[in-house]
Each structure stands twice: as structure tokens, then as C-alpha cells.
Write a structure and sequence with these properties.
CATH class: Alpha Beta
Structural class: alpha/beta
Order of helices and strands: HHEEHEHEEHEEEEEEEHH
CATH architecture: 3-Layer(bba) Sandwich
CATH superfamily: Ribonuclease E inhibitor RraA/RraA-like
Number of strands: 12
Number of domains: 1
Radius of gyration: 18 Å
Strand content: 15-25%
Length: about 220
Amino acid sequence: MTDGRRDRGADGPSGTPHLLARAAGVDFPTLGHFLEDGFLDPALRRTGLADRMIGTAATLVLGAPDATAVNRAILALRPAEVLVIDTGGDHTHAVVGAVTAAAARARGAAGILVDGAVTDVDALRDPRTGIPVHARGTTCLTTKRLDGTRARRQVPADVGGVRIEPGDIVLGDANGVIALAPDVLAGVLHRAELSDTAEPDLLRRIREGEALEELLHLG
């Protein structure tokens, strides 16, 4: 198993910690006004704790439904990372459950993103042990304790139709998941912040009955 960890844009005044803090202040769908790429397949839904997921990608690409490989990836997690699991197209085995989620939380992870299934949904949503998790669905069929050799860590992962690099920013909420290189996110954050600042007044004007022809963009 390889572990070629690298950080993307983690240094400098506009580094990753600063980006994560700013991203926490925007409505994630607002980013969809300014970007076309980086939005994962809507089939990946929130199945864990009902908190927003904001962190940097730590990737795992599986070659088998191997619990050992997942456990090793969890032990390598750093605070504020999102464990991103590319299951290699296996959507039938749950690669995350109660114990793995609790362990990721203990490592300080910001969440788990699985292009496949998870299990123990009640535990994933438990405020005492859960963590933000996004996945394609749930199942009782789980991974097995294999030798952990058919997996790669910190390499590009294909999840929900998006290529996710280690260190990318991963954002998830009830609407879906976005994965962006730090420089891409940095390039749109200011516009997203301005849009979010303006929206409450626009909603107020709609509620108060102002002419929609004057409020809505009509081309």
C-alpha cells in the first residue's frame, strides 16, 4: 500500500486552513452559481451525522472489500481530513460502519466520503459517536478482514464521477458533495460570499411582495 501524501495549497496567507474557515461561512450550493465541475453524482447522499462536512481529502482506493485497508487509512488520518474512499466500483459491500466511523472521529476527521455503501446508519448519525458521512446507500453486507495489500492511499481517487486528489477541499451537506482543488475554491469564494450576503435582502423583498419581474434574472 502506498502513501504518497501531499498537501495542495496548504501554505501561505490563503492556505488550506484559511480556505476551510472561509468555506464554513458560505452556503455550498452558492458555489454552483459560479462553477460547473467538482460536483459529485447526486446519488451520493448524506447518511451520517447531520453536520456539514468541510475538510481536505485523504484518499483510499480499494482493490477489494478489505476492512484492513480501511482501518490502516483511518489510522493515517490527520485532523480536519475527510477520508475519501474509491471502492473500485464495488457498491455492494459496506466499507464504513459504527467502529470505523467512531475511529475516524477519534482521529479528528472531518468526515467520510464513500463511493459505495455504508452500514450501521443509526450509529453514524449518533451525536456521541457519529461523523458526517456521504455514501451511495446502506447495506448489511460488509468488508472482510483481508491482508490490506490491494489498496492505495493518497493517490487520485474517482468518486461520484469526480477525480479527487489528496489535499482537495471536500464540502458536503444535505444537498450533496463538492470536491475542489484549493486554488479553484479560492477563485470563487469572494463571489460566493457576496452572493450569500445579498440573498437575505432579496428573500425579504420577495416576501414583502415586490414585483418579481424586477427581482429575478430574466436574461
